[in-house]
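Example record

The entry below shows one chain as it appears in the dataset: sequence first, then structure tokens.
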Amino acid sequence: MMERRVIEARDIVTSFGETVIHDKISLHIDAGEIYGILGESGAGKSLLLKEMIMLLRPTSGTMKVLGHDVVNIGFKEAQQLRQRWGVLFQFGALFSSLTVAENIALQLKEYTDMDKNTVDRLVATKISMVGLPQRAGGLYPSELSGGMIKRAALARALAMDPKLLFLDEPTSGLDPIGARNFDRLIMELRELLGITVVMITHDLESIHDIIDRFSVLADRHVVAEGSLDDVLRSDHPFIERFFKNEYVNKKFPRGQKCEGE
């Protein structure tokens, strides 16, 4: 039986004046997947994510997220829907004037009536969940390493126990070991929390190791969608350049697992 659709985009057009970024893009994401969005520079990957999380409205087309029409959604319904997902932006986007714990607590204080002790316990739980020491809760973003910023921002994204998690280039800026550790964390959280994950990525090892299905954006369209094997069957020039040349030259040949798995 087909899994419930968590996100379904149909014929999405995104244009700015005469410049067309997306020309009738369609894709779907099923519950429990780790789904990737890949594309050439300027293909509109981040714009598509912004349309999914209601930061941008497409020019035309339909976009349903968790069963809601986010193109024609009302204000109150949108506010309630935003509480059902979490977002990890590329550079963390933590509030620099707040500690890690205060960043994580923001949504809990804004959207719930939990008392301070309950909020503090939940914040501590989220800090542990992403693999940070409890002392990190008292630190400011300027006192964190790049990897710690990613994990702190992930803890904030998980604050409201979302059903859907959006990640924008989650391993960018991390060293190879840190990137693989972050990948493992995402997989563990998917299994632990039963969430659906949507991630923009250019990380070949992430695509190989943790992504179930993904779409490739190029020439204003989705030029391929599916598993890695499905995508590699495409003869689109971008896929030829990105995968069939670069992928083969990586340390792992096609179909072989990375060391340490």
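Notes for this example: The chain is about 35% helix and 25% strand. The CA atoms of residues 208 and 237 lie 20 Å apart.
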